[in-house]
Amino acid sequence: MAGIYNHVGGSGRGVTMAGVMNYSGRDYTGLRMAFILDAVRNNFKGLQMSGVYSHVGGELHGVQISFIGNYVNSNIHGSQYAGIFNGARMNMRGLQAAGIMNMTRGFMSGAQMAGIGNIAGDVHGVQMSGIFNKAKHVQGTQIAAILNIADHSDCPIGLINIIRDGEMSIWVTYDMTGNIVLAFRSGGRVMYGIIGIGYNPDTEDGIVWEGGIGAHINILRWFKINNELTVTNMDMLHSSVSQASYSLLPAFRIGQHFELFAGPSFNYMYTQSDKGGNANLFPQNSVWKKVVGEDIQQMFIGFKVGAQYVF
């Protein structure tokens, strides 16, 4: 326990707690707690908890828990949990979980989970975040609400995926409800994200928003089947109509950059109001339909056709 400074030059077992600073120059096994600074410059096994900052200059075997701070300058085996910050400059094996951000500059095997973002070198496992993930070579999955970035990642799940050896394209689609959508599609060899804006002449304001994810079934160099789950919002500025769709889209590559696709879709459409003629957006054919006052729900089989430019 330290008001100011504790130092163990040899191996240590037990507990160190610091008001201001605890430092162990060699191995330490046990529990360490810090209000301000707890530093270990060699292997550490056990648990570290920090109010403000913990640092391990060597390996960490065990768990780090931090409200503010925690930093490992070498390998870590085990778990890191942070309200605000956890970092490991070298290899990381195990689990990183943070309210805001995780960062591992070396190899990461296991899972990274963060409220805002994850940064890692090579990843074997899963990166999950509320906003973004960034890595080099990913063997596994990246899952983010908005953005995934990697040199290689076959299965990123997010609206936007910037994958260096992946595929990005601009595409135009038309579906059974009259939506004409210009979208950006981006992802890896298997998974990709979809985000787009469009127009529907039958709505009051005409604005259409679309987002979703897809998966390629790669069959031939010039032929593949795209499976897509999308959510489309129409007449958003007034009384919105929402549509959730699954589309099965055989796609044919023409040359290096152009692709044509068309196929059936299974749809669920919903609105709380038929104001502005929203009821006219619902197709005549339906698998199931329910109307309660101005509340309309419908399932129907439709279609989607389109073309894209791949770059």
- The share of residues in helices is under 10%
Name the shape in a single word: elongated
Averaged pLDDT, please?
87
Low-confidence stretches: none
How many β-strand stretches?
Answer: 31
What structural class is derived from the secondary structure elements? mainly beta
What would you say this structure looks like, in words?
0% of the residues lie in helices and 65% in strands. It contains no helices and 31 strands. The strands form three sheets. Strands 1-3-5-7-9-11-13-15-17-19-22 form an eleven-stranded parallel sheet, with no helix packed on it. Strands 2, 4, 6, 8, 10, 12, 14, 16, 18, 20 and 21 form an eleven-stranded parallel sheet that branches. It is elongated, with a radius of gyration of 26 Å. The mean pLDDT is 87.
Give keywords.
single chain; eleven-stranded parallel beta sheet; elongated; mainly beta; 311 residues
Provide a concise account of the structure shown.
This protein is mainly β and 311 residues long.
Topology:
Elements: E1 7-8, E2 12-18, E3 23-24, E4 28-34, E5 39-40, E6 44-50, E7 55-56, E8 60-66, E9 71-72, E10 76-82, E11 85-88, E12 92-98, E13 101-104, E14 108-114, E15 117-120, E16 123-129, E17 132-134, E18 137-144, E19 147-150, E20 152-153, E21 156-157, E22 160-163, E23 167-175, E24 180-187, E25 191-199, E26 207-220, E27 223-234, E28 241-254, E29 258-271, E30 288-292, E31 295-310
Parallel strand pairs: 1-3, 2-4, 3-5, 4-6, 5-7, 6-8, 7-9, 8-10, 9-11, 10-12, 11-13, 12-14, 13-15, 14-16, 15-17, 16-18, 17-19, 18-20, 18-21, 19-22
Antiparallel strand pairs: 23-24, 23-31, 24-25, 25-26, 26-27, 27-28, 28-29, 29-31, 30-31
